[in-house]
Design brief:
Layout (H helix, E strand, L loop, with lengths): L1 H22 L6 E7 L4 H14 L3 E7 L2 H9 L5 E4 L5 H11 L6 E13 L6 E3 H7 L7 E3 L5 H9 L10 E2 L3 H7 L7 E5 L1 H4 L4 H9 E3 L1 E4 L2 E3 L4 H4 L6 E8 L6 H10 L1 H9 L3 E2 L11
Parallel strand pairs: 1-2, 1-3, 5-10, 6-7, 6-8
Antiparallel strand pairs: 3-12, 4-8, 4-9, 4-12, 4-13, 10-11
Keywords: Signal
Organism: Epilithonimonas hispanica
Pfam families: PBP_like_2
């Protein structure tokens, strides 16, 4: 009788284990949610679209949320993967180690940049690092960011070793809104992500490129724009590297998406977005 009882218990345990395994996603099947700042919306959408097209049994819900809030959601395990651009602080890394119990390993996949833009008819052509710093301390609040807790503001604050709350600036929510409404504020300078206008054949990106002038940034008496090798070589002063973070402790859909984004197919998507792929570079072959 006891033997029969233990056999029944063992059977139920095996059935439970099998049903539980069915619920665990893998790189080719399942559903997860990832979050990305609005500044990286275009490249994030493109990567998700391509990955799910190649893996039709997967569903990735892309939620656009401010960078800082996305990090909190990752730590609270509300989402599986987030896109980041700035370095985490010491306290944030400690919180990650404590809550996630995984080594902090950023999966770098693209070089983006923060741009300073004005309307096409503006007489301005460039802005220096010192001028940017001074504007962030001025009550005139000439620099327009896309909101608090945003990646653009966080990145610029980090570059100047400041807390975002210590800076003075204006706000128009959303990178595209900043770009579109800038013509109404001729004395202001917009601060947007390169990815907002980088997609070569995107209609909205092309429209914004036609309306905006990207200011060159002067550093050490030399002017840099974001185009050409300045992004690849990270010589443009406000180049930033986008990376993915996950709380997934196994090789599931989250890690599958990360691997895809960092390998050749994902890097081709990044390049088609007009950004610099982090892990593959153009190679020139000379035929003689």
């Amino acid at each position: 009788m006891k033997k029969i009882f233990f056999l029944i218990i063992a059977s139920f345990a095996m059935m439970y284990s099998c049903s539980k395994d069915k619920d665990i996603d893998n790189p080719n099947k399942g559903e997860i949610t990832i979050e990305a700042d609005e500044s990286f919306k275009s490249v994030s959408e493109a990567l998700v679209e391509r990955y799910t097209a190649l893996n039709p049994k997967t569903k990735i819900n892309l939620v656009i949320k401010k960078e800082d809030l996305g990090l909190l959601d990752l730590l609270d395990k509300k989402v599986r993967v987030i896109v980041m651009s700035r370095e985490l602080s010491k306290k944030e890394k400690e919180a990650f180690d404590k809550k996630i119990d995984l080594p902090w390993k950023p999966a770098r996949f693209a070089a983006d940049a923060v741009l300073f833009v004005v309307p096409k008819d503006s007489p301005l052509e460039s802005i220096s690092i010192d001028e940017i710093y001074n504007e962030l301390s001025s009550d005139k609040k000439r620099l327009i960011f896309d909101g608090t807790n945003s990646s653009n503001l966080n990145f610029i604050a980090q570059k100047f070793h400041k807390n975002p709350s210590d800076l003075k600036f204006s706000i128009i929510n959303g990178n595209e809104n900043v770009a579109e409404q800038l013509k109404n504020y001729p004395d202001k300078i917009g601060v947007i992500s390169y990815n907002t206008i980088s997609r070569p054949f995107g209609k909205e990106a092309e429209k914004l490129r036609n309306e905006l002038k990207v200011l060159k940034v002067i550093k050490d008496n030399k002017a840099y724009d974001v185009y050409g090798d300045n992004l690849k070589d990270m010589t443009y002063p406000f180049t930033r590297v986008l990376y993915l973070l996950t709380n997934e402790a196994y090789y599931g859909l989250g890690n599958g998406f990360i691997r895809f984004s960092c390998q050749q197919l994902g890097q081709i998507v990044v390049e088609k977005e007009g950004l610099q792929p982090y892990n593959i570079f153009k190679r020139e072959v000379q035929m003689r």
